[in-house]
Design a protein that fits this description.
Order of helices and strands: HHHHHEEEEEEEEEHHHHHH
Shape: globular
Low-confidence stretches: none
Number of strands: 9
Strand content: 15-25%
Strand order of the largest sheet: 7-8-2-1-3-6-9
Structural class: alpha+beta
Distance between the termini: 46 Å
Amino acid sequence: MTAEEIALIRKLVVKSEKEKKLTDPLLKLIEDKQWFRIFVPTKYNGNVQPLTRVVALEEHLAHIDGSLGWTVTLCSGAGWFAGFLPESVATEFMGARNCCIAGSGAPTGTARRSGNGFIVNGTWKYATGAPHASSFTANCFILDEKGEPETENGAPLVRAFIFRREEVWPMQNWNAIGMIASASHGFEIRDRYVDGERSFNIRPEAATSDHPVFQYPFLQLAEVTLAANISGMVRHFLDICKASFAAEALEKKFSHRQSERIRKDLETAEQEMETVRNSFYAAVFASWEYCENAKALPDELLSYVSRISKLLVSTGIQWVDTLYPYGGLGFADRDSEVNRVWRDIHTAGQHTLLLRDIEN
């Protein structure tokens, strides 16, 4: 990405936050760069990339702006479902020039079997990029024709579905303190019949594309891409702190001893983040190598990918919370860049997949 493009994005993000959605020029740049298509197979007009390259790109975008990185990550992540759809369905939904898929992983709907399809009802609270989405995905509990829950291996059966924009009823419910321009509004579906071909599962054995990225387990794919976003935002926050905590600025407000402590905390934060970040990328590269070589990922490696992703997030947020008070009321100015980054971090960090395991 050129310096001019980065400067343009940083100019547009302020307007995006005011408009509470990504601006049209920003969406055009995303389309020109094919960032919503980085997981879509080439046969569907996509630009599928290796996972390692995707993670680095998403961290870079989040470093520029949290809402931009998050929207590209979530909408391109929904595009990953193209690798599990029947060809006719994927061609329809991925072929549009302005293809952008919003969706929700929460199974807060039901799909009752009806002939060769399903009658879908439900409400999904959060779908990043909803205002400019061309289609939506959602998870539903499957019911039989009598309305009784179906099970699989003793657990309720859940399947994913894809819907045309005109089939959903959008909601205006995104009111978070940060990630404002991600416009993560919800949507409803009421008594909508959909053909059975628009139902799919995302297990590796169900992939309809042979690209290795569709053999990477979805849980870890989601964890590493979301963690990369937090990492990018935290690095942005640390950059601002580094500029704000220059010696002459600090010593106007603090004693020499206090100033030294603040600079030491910032230095330690940068070192710890870099150490964990290096381990995170090493885990992503190691796990991706198995997929590239058509090998099943060992359970212990998958567990480590999950742990290091959550550690990267928790380390970053802990240091942000340590450093934030040193900025005083200037950091609390809602219109400041640092406050926007702080709000974005603490909103994105609420995603349940990023929560570290809670011991009993």
